[in-house]
Amino acid sequence: MESYERGSIPTRTSDYRSILALHKLTDQFTFGSVNIHPLRFKKWLRRLQNDGYQFCTLSEQLHSKDVNHKNIAFVYDDGYAHLARTLPSLMSEFDFSPAIALPTFFIDSFNKWDYSSLFRQERHLSKSEIVQLSEAGVEFISHGHSHVALTRCSERKLIAELIRSKEILEDIIGKPVTTVSYPFGMCNKRVIDKALAVGYTHGLTMQHPMSTDSSMQIGRYGIHCFDSYHSLISYLERTDGYTFYRTVSRLTSFLSRGNNLLQRIRGEDTGLN
User: Fold this and answer.
1) 158-181 burial string, b = 16+ CB within 10 Å, else e?
2) What is the average pLDDT value for the chain, to the nearest integer?
3) For position 117, what pLDDT does the model report?
């Protein structure tokens, strides 16, 4: 079994895979730091192509033996319903096929797990929208069943979170689901061992990519509303400002774990406790 240890920042840009972790893509007002306006994202896609980057699917990125940071995969965590409206036109124009990580308990329901829902609730994708996007080329991966930190689950709940989300998605799209995006990017050896045991082959975190990433601890660049094209390129190329941008990104991802406290306060029952 592969090591679970992470290494230092690689010095050669060819040492890691470029995967962007996004969340919201809407022209509507949202609370929090994870929305990128579709027009802004469109400009980024065009500039990335003009600057020599190529877009690939998540599966291509995970299974390719040719590690090249110029190949970029996109993953939208949480699976908000507005993606069914905003993604298709961008996919068609720029010939890219993102992946969506979806917490299956909230299919066609609202984001009660997220503290932004205290101000405004947002709906997650419905089954019909999932099928529509899957047929258009979107890859669906697990994000757990109820978007809880898997590291804090009992053995029984951990296994149920991993299996239930996998089975539900496979039943909807009719395709194998072998990748999990750990909620809040949180995993440990126990979580990884259980994920492997129930049939996952890859796991995505919210750490930045490393040359020493293992198949079950694959880093991604978390993209937020305060990011610019400059910071995006700094992530991809490890150029000036990378350490600063990386620190801000990691702090923002860490603060998102406050949702765990909200879940405990609310005592949400997903039927898997």
Assistant:
1) bbbbbbbbbbbbbebbeeebbbbb
2) 88
3) 63
Pick from 247, 157, 141: which is nearest to 204 by CA?
A: 141
- Any domain includes 40: yes
Helix (H, G, I), strand (E, B) or coil at 217: strand
Question: Between β-strands 221-222 and 18-22, what pairing exists: parallel, antiparallel or unpaired?
Answer: parallel
Does residue 7 belong to any structural domain of this protein?
no
Please give the tally of structural domains in the chain.
Answer: 1
Neighbouring residues of 184: CB distance < 8 A, sequence distance ≥ 6: 149, 206, 253, 256, 257, 259, 260
**Neighbour count for residue 229 (Cβ, 10 Å):** 13
| 3-state SS record for 1-16 | CCCCCCCCCCCCHHHC
CATH number at residue 55: 3.20.20.370
**What residues have CB less than 8 Å from 46, skipping those under 6 apart?**
94
Whether residue 204 lies inside any domain: the answer is yes
pLDDT class for 9, splitting at 50, 70, 90? Answer: very low
Q: Tokens 């660049």 belong to which residue?
A: 221
pLDDT at 130 > cutoff 90: yes
pTM: 0.89
Q: Does residue 1 belong to any structural domain of this protein?
A: no
Answer yes or no: are the C-beta atoms of 126 and 172 closer than 8 Å: no
> 147-206: per-residue pLDDT in tens?
999 999 999 999 999 999 999 999 999 999 999 999 999 999 999 999 999 999 999 999
DSSP string over 30-65: -SSS-B--HHHHHHHHHHHHHTT-EE--HHHHHH-S
Alpha helices in 95-178 (DSSP H): 127-136, 155-173
φ, ψ at 181 (rounded to 5°): -100, 110
Chain position carrying tokens 């809040």? 184
Q: What is the spatial distance between Cα 36 and Cα 40, in angstroms, rounded to a whole number?
A: 7
Give me the domain span that covers residue 234.
Answer: 14-265
